[in-house]
Amino acid sequence: MAEPSFDVVGIGNAIVDVLAHAADAFLASEGLTKGAMTLIDAGAAKDLYEKIGPAVECSGGSAANTIAALASLGGKGAFVGKVHDDQLGEVFRHDIRALGVAFDTPPDDLGPPTATCLILVTPDAQRTMQTFLGACVTLGPKDIDEGLIAASRVTYLEGYLWDPPLAKQAIVKAAKAAHAAGRMVSLSLSDPFCVDRHRAEFLDLVNHHVDILFANEREIMSLYRVGSFDESLQAVRGHCKIAALTRSEKGSVVVAGDEIHVIDAERVPRVVDTTGAGDAYAAGFLFGITAGRDVAVSARIGSIAAAEVIAHLGARPETSLKALIEKRFG
């Protein structure tokens, strides 16, 4: 087998994030579900954008954030996602390529504009996301380069991508191509409401296509429809090779065969914004695994990456994750 050109290729929604602070009262007045990701249309996105306060715009999307953090760690990453041939599409393309990430998915010149996600951060650092998928819905099997998949140690998929119909076909094609090439497949469940919408299909994915599963406490409990984290921990055992389950300030738990590792969360002076914490954790974990680290060390790298991201506004690292890891592990 040829040596892989990339550590991880991420496949996901290519989104430009618009981050703004908001009070709980504002969420209530707009009828928004706090802490969740809700899909909205172009009109609703425009209406909400006009109501929010000062905002920061930056490239985002769950899998794209993971690949960006992987690059900050020193890993080799590629990304597959759909943007429109418009100003925001060029912003996204420039941002991710500037990090050293390979991004060659052709932009659309017809159809909906580049996707946006309005992220409202409340004083408790929780984020409420209103997402207009725009051009993301056009991502399909034709955008999956099987050569790129075969050249990547891990193909990383975001659960959010399961909403657009064509993307489902793309995900299955990518997973089959990865396994045909002897590579690994990883999936993030992304959001408990996403799990609720697609539970049966996600269970099939986990059982038949996924080697490394990422989920937070609410997501994994929703997947198996159980009332406690301990029950979900037992339910996921044996369904994939590795399950890395995050629990916010309680850290994470990694299940790998008969092994269970409990990893403490990294301390931060102040939690500013939890946007991208799970994405950064996944980046650190996959960086460790593809570098030959064991699952416990990989989870600690994930925790360090997540801690950097939650200490500031925005979902991508502001300081070198590679430097942080070298300081800790040498």
Low-pLDDT stretches are none
Average pLDDT works out at 93
Assembly type of the chains comes to: single chain
Number of helices: 12
Rounded to the nearest angstrom, the distance between the terminal CA atoms is 30 Å
- Tell me how many strands there are: 14
Q: What is the third-level CATH name, the topology?
A: UDP-N-acetylmuramoyl-L-alanine:D-glutamate ligase
- Helicity range of the residues? 40-55%
Largest sheet: 9 strands, mixed
Q: What count of domains describes the coordinates?
A: 1
Which terms summarize this structure?
globular; nine-stranded mixed beta sheet; 330 residues; 12 helices; UDP-N-acetylmuramoyl-L-alanine:D-glutamate ligase; five-stranded mixed beta sheet; alpha/beta
Can you walk me through this structure?
- The structure is a single chain.
- The protein is 41% helix and 22% strand.
- The protein has twelve helices and 14 strands.
- The longest helix is centred in the middle third of the chain and has 17 residues, at 192-208.
- It has a single domain (6-329), classed as UDP-N-acetylmuramoyl-L-alanine:D-glutamate ligase, CATH 3.40.1190.
- The chain has a nine-stranded mixed sheet. A five-stranded mixed sheet has the order 3-8-7-2-4.
- It is globular and about 50 Å long.
- Helix 7 (192-208) crosses helix 8 (217-224) and helix 10 runs antiparallel to helix 11.
- The chain has 330 residues and is an alpha/beta fold.
